[in-house]
Amino acid sequence: MAFNVTGVEQGEWAVLRVSGELDLMTSPILRQRVHDVVAEGHHRLVVDLSDVFFCDSSGVGVLVAARRLIRSCQGRLRLILPDRGADDGSHVNRVLGALGVRRLFDVCPDLAAATADDADPLSA
Predict the structure, then answer these.
(1) pTM reported for the whole predicted model
(2) DSSP per-residue letters across 9-71
(3) In principle, which of 38, 52, 90, 97 could form an S-S bond with 102, CB 3.0–4.6 Å?
(4) Which CATH number fits domain 4-115: 3.30.420.60, 1.20.1560.10, 1.20.1300.10, 3.30.750.24?
């Protein structure tokens, strides 16, 4: 599966849907897309990682940098990481947890929850 980032707007939220492997080679693409979205004036961003099947430390670095950028604009960042159960849960969710940065993010199970004004993030 090739890496791909597509963007849409959902109400007041900009949504970046990411698929494939988020690694050293592909993370600069996501980093640039996040910067482009913020430069366009969007300060509410959802990054949908439902279709990311591999994420290394450079991918995590992009997510942490995106959080920092959005917070500097007094914005909101939410990640979509579907809860598939303890044994086969999202790879990205497991990586974020293993690195101890999962708690930094508002995580939602799907787009509807992520773009709701009263979104209740999943517990870490």
Answers:
(1) 0.89
(2) EETTEEEEEEEEEESTTTHHHHHHHHHHHHHTT--EEEEEEEEEEEE-HHHHHHHHHHHHHHH
(3) 97
(4) 3.30.750.24
